[in-house]
Amino acid sequence: MRMHLTSAAAALVLFAGVGAVAAEDVVITPEQDTVVREYVKKQPLASVKLPGVELNVGTPVPDTVELHEVPKVKYRYVVIDNRTVLVDPSTRKIVKVYD
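-> structure tokens emitted (99 positions)
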């Protein structure tokens, strides 16, 4: 019985880890990337200053920062420190940083 519970616990931890990794994987298709790039050029935003925030994939964007829609893309964008970033609105984490 003890071995069975240990195996079940190990499997649960393994599957939870797999789910977390899968959630972190964000795939932006070339079509979506083109839509974002063209839309951002046509709809420029003022840059927001966020001292101390590193613009990396996975970094959360504070709730105080307004995210803007991109047509046909589930992600939102904002310009932070003169760099456009794409953000998942459900987690508010950066999914792509444009230079």
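Strands lie at 68-69, 76-80, 83-88, 93-97.
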